């Protein structure tokens, strides 16, 4: 059997709930070998983020080259990148050598409200990196920033997904976890197949730290195993729902999920 490999290109969360730590836990739980390239380092816990330091672009690129030339991944995901220089460097690397599905989770703001990407980086993301995405997975706020209009319901989620495909992403999954509704509904747009909704019961809990990271990592793991996009999202949706439902209630703030779910 060939061991399936997934790569995370993301920031570090020392509390282990989000970022590359959450990605690696998710990869392991779902049966793929995980690799991680560090793009930025945060000082954070369940109560908040107090410091963010972005890696030098050449250091990020050297990490990518080191893993891809030795243990090439079958799929990869991108999380927090920090600034335009890192975005541009990764976009160039993706254009030259990424032959695997790339899931981009456009992390702009932490769960606690800390900015993880400035406006210049957002523009670079939209023009240079999103066109490399096999799947783009914004939440409502990120979709609104990238699409340029408010995203507040299913109709505007569909509109935003179409707009983001027009920016070059092959497929877009707009996550509706922040909708004011009984169901947590995510909207997938595949230009060749149209729209599909993935729904799960909303769980009343404050422990949702790292939800976006974990969800996109689960999709990436399933893609690495050879699943179709819809299969990967369906499986990941079940995993993230159970991870939220069984969250271990750690910390005094917004706690992490259960990555053993």
Short description:
By secondary structure, the protein is an alpha/beta fold. The chain has eight helices and nine strands. The protein has a six-stranded mixed β-sheet. Strands 7-8-9 form a three-stranded antiparallel β-sheet, with helices on both faces.
Descriptive account of the structure:
The chain has 261 residues and is an alpha/beta fold. It has one domain: UDP-N-acetylmuramoyl-L-alanine:D-glutamate ligase. It is built from eight helices and nine strands. The protein has helices at residues 19-29, 57-68, 84-97, 119-129, 140-147, 154-166, 211-224, 229-245; strands at residues 5-12, 33-45, 48-54, 75-78, 102-104, 135-136, 172-174, 183-190, 194-201. The strands form two sheets. It has a six-stranded mixed β-sheet. Helix 1 crosses helix 7 and helix 3 packs parallel to helix 4 (119-129). The protein is globular and about 45 Å long. The mean pLDDT is 95.
Key phrases:
261 residues; alpha/beta; UDP-N-acetylmuramoyl-L-alanine:D-glutamate ligase; 3-stranded antiparallel β-sheet; 8 helices; globular
Give the CATH topology: UDP-N-acetylmuramoyl-L-alanine:D-glutamate ligase
β-strand percent reads 15-25%
Question: What composes the largest sheet?
Answer: 6 strands, mixed
Q: What overall form do the CA principal axes indicate?
A: globular
- State the helicity in percent bands: 25-40%
Kindly state the number of beta strands: 9
CATH class: Alpha Beta
Q: Secondary-structure element sequence? A: EHEEHEHEHEHHEEEHH
Supply the number of helical segments. Answer: 8
CATH superfamily: Ribokinase
Strand order, sheet with most strands: 3-2-1-4-5-6
Low-confidence stretches: none
Number of domains: 1
Radius of gyration equals 17 Å
């Amino acid at each position: 059997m060939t061991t399936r490999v997934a790569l995370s290109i993301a920031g570090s969360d020392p509390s282990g709930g989000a970022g590359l730590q959450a990605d690696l836990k998710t990869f392991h739980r779902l049966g793929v070998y995980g690799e991680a390239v560090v793009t930025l380092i945060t000082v954070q816990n369940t109560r908040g983020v107090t410091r963010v330091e972005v890696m030098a672009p050449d250091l990020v690129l050297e990490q990518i080259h080191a893993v891809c030339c030795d243990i090439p991944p079958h799929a990869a995901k991108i999380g927090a990148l920090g600034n335009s220089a890192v975005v541009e460097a990764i976009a160039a690397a993706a254009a030259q050598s990424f032959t695997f599905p790339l899931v981009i989770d456009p992390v702009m703001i932490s769960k606690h409200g800390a900015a993880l990407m400035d406006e210049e980086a957002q523009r670079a993301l939209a023009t240079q990196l999103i066109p490399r995405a096999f799947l783009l997975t914004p939440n409502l706020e990120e979709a609104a920033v990238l699409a340029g209009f408010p995203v507040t319901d299913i109709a505007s989620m569909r509109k935003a997904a179409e707009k983001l495909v027009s920016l070059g992403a092959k497929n877009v999954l707009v996550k509706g976890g922040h909708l004011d509704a009984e169901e947590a509904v995510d909207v997938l747009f595949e230009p060749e197949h149209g729209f599909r909704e993935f729904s799960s019961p909303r769980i009343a809990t404050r422990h949702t730290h790292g939800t976006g990271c974990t969800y996109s990592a689960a999709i990436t793991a399933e893609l690495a195993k050879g699943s179709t996009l819809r299969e990967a999202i369906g499986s990941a949706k079940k995993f993230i729902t159970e991870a939220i439902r069984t969250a271990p209630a750690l910390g005094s703030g917004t706690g992490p999920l259960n990555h053993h779910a």
